[in-house]
Amino acid sequence: LFQQIKAHSPFRTLKDDCCMTEQEAARERTIVGSVLVAGGGVGGVQASLDLADAGYFVYLVERSPVIGGAMAQLDKTFPTNDCSMCILSPKLVECGRHLNIEIIPHSQITGISGEPGNFTVSVLRKPSYVDPAKCVACGACAEKCPSKVSDEFNEGFSQRRAISIPYPQAVPHVYHIDPRYCRYLIKGKCQLCVKVCKAGAINFDMKDEVRELSVGAVILSPGFDEYDAARKYPFGYGRYENVVTSIQFERLLSASGPYEGHVRRPSDKAEPKRVAFIQCVGSRDLQYGNGYCSGVCCMYAVKESIIAKEHASEMDITIFYMDIRAYGKGFDAYYTEARDKHGIRFVPSNVSSVKELPDTRNLLIKYVSEEGRIQEEEFELVVLSVGLEPSRSSRELAAALGIELNQHQFCSSGMLSPLNTSKPGIFVTGLFQGPKDIPETVAQSSGAAGLAAALLSPARKMLVQEKKLPAELDVSQQTPRIGVFVCHCGINIGSVVDVKSVVALARELPNVVYAEENLYSCSQDTQEKIKALIAEHKLNRVVVASCSPRTHEPLFQETIQEAGLNRY
User: Fold this and answer.
1) Chain centroid to CA 529: how far?
2) Cβ atoms within 10 A of the Cβ of 352, count?
């Protein structure tokens, strides 16, 4: 039996190489100790960190200019109501400065050849027209750029420039030029950004670049598209200004959003008193959408309604639903809390239509009550809980890699092997495998990383670099020189702490030689700023007042260690 298994194995077993080391055996079998991760959302970031920490080099390929995906747009996460960016940002920074992760933005996979353990993957990188090695993210270019366009990150509720960074904590923290709106790339006139960029980072001569990457395995995590709510014509999205999608409502709730966390309706910027959520928009709907359940819509609607009540306790919120699918850990208790503690009203009904009242721009919802009577109710804002769909880019990715899709266009995987694609050596995780929430995506991503690591185990540590830290300064005999960094973090901290007063008080305390307020202390640029200030002011003690040490302490410890201080 052993001989039969060995005969069908793609690699010789270690028994055949008893006189070789693992790395020599890997070279003999042409196993490559690197992995390509396609997709820079939370799943791709988690898989990349797991693999890089385990001794494999990672190419993180992302279509957009930055990593972070849809999680970066969210205000809070259910069922704990933790700040989404507070969870994500340390992972982004860690990913961005990891020696064994190369982030390749503006890129897509165009082809693959080879076999498990030794693939060659073709990657097309589009130009950003900004040299990442020179850009210092000062923002002078965006200030002078004359082209104002709709900001996709804020779901169209604000404007950005043709040259921009999507959000403050973005990684890589480098500006990029959108060729769809740049006046120079469209008309051949402007170049104001070139004139004001003192770093000389703008380069309009950048062209498409094709790279051939040698990797042992591939992990697919390309994310999802939200259902286009305009397809559900009776609900009026795109025609009625005060009908918004759930992801748009996330941006309205967010402290970093267009209204700084104050809930406003788009038509007149007034705070709505009556808000309705309509569930299953695009899900479980063969007429206008998809036949499957998207899995997350019930819980994110409950979360958004709770957060909205925290912003405005007098707000009256109604959720129209077919049934509540609260199947995760703590989810049912979360739903019960929303109903019993926060007074959110749940109406079991499939809404038939939404119509705008011209005089007030309010919305009239028509539905059938539990007693079977046709009812109409007026609301000032309607939120459509849209479902999740496989992204267009994921279908292109599947075609480029030659992997199979299922009847819903998600990646085809087995019931007992959900992380395996139809092609050996290529693994799948996250929303491309099927609808799921963030915790399940993260767990799957670690699983996919484990499968890739097992496949490539003989080549472990062959391609990685060891991080070299500066010699630790001996400050034991020095007078304490303390630097204090207080995080504002939008309303997450700023709504309950008078941050400016804390900073002013800190400056008066003994041995404090520097104190400042940061909007987001965990962002990549602030980490670099802290290291620079340690050197400039000869700081030998650092105090950071920010989010939970459980999630953020390792990030700041590594930062001050890179500046030559003891991590503690």
Assistant:
1) 23
2) 12
